[in-house]
Amino acid sequence: MTIERFRGNGRTRALGRHAWLALLAILLLLVVAPAIARAQADTLTLAWTAPGDDGSQGRASSYEVRMSTSPITLSNYGAAPVLASVPAPANAGTRQSLVVRGLSRSSEYWFVVRTRDDVGNWSDLSNIVRWTWPLDNAPPAAPTGLTAGSDGGKAIQLRWTANSEPTVAGYVVYRAVSGEGPWERLNIQPVAVPEYLDDRLPPDVPKVWYQVTATNSAGGESARSAPVQAIVFSNLSRDPIAWRIRSAYPNPSRGHEFVHMPIEVPASPGDAHLEIVDSGGQRVRRLDVARSVVGVVEVDWDGRNESGQLCAPGVYRAWLVAPGTRQAVAVARVP
Q1: pLDDT per residue over 87-111, tens digit each?
Q2: Cis peptide before 240 (omega within 30 of 0)
Q3: Domain range enclosing 104
């Protein structure tokens, strides 16, 4: 590649001392970029040494820096997007740079620069530089938004919010029969989607707890999510002799998340309902208990009051009002 030396209104090819100095300046484009670019996940810095207006003398008029997600050639150069906020050329030999933001770690990038002199003559293309993101082996963040709900009474359906990191390869689910552990890993291979059906529930336990981690392609595993509790309906009384309310789940719950409250329904006659009461003792919602079956039914509260408005965060009590009984469980709502 040669560098065109600009003089007056015409162009003359020159490979003398000044032209080689100008060539060296252009070839330094991006040489130090990899060391600088690791500062942020979506940002890199292009760096070069300014050429002159006349070989290595003076100051050029402007730069044109182009970027593409496919290799740049002479034939497709004009189709590559032009980058904005490019600095004005400094005196020949001055180190200059341009920060490029908003990049995607899932894409490769190619960059090239040209220089224009004071009469509108453009240089040849600089060396074309390819940028590939360095491999990120850092573990992902812990998953959030984990919820657990009954799936027909014999399994627990888990769902959570998918991680945003592009390096996440899957998720691992852990279960315990106590909130303090010990924790058992349920899936040998990470699941690719943010959900899991636990259809092999342990016998003779009324409750189980779950946590989830995220893994990346390098095998790094995140910290565990906050635990959630679930009721094992298949282990509850199938023929209860009295009304009984079980612990609510998830607890605490947040925002528009439903709270599920298992109720053991006996064969004795009579209707029942739940009263959701705030910390001041005021009833905010009444929920009827279905009498379609004898066994366990689940009453769901969407966190709203009788007017349909979301209740403020705080500690509430769900009172089971049934023939011959009045029982309550605490229900915490968080922002």
Answers
A1: 999 988 889 999 999 888 778 999 9
A2: no
A3: 4-131
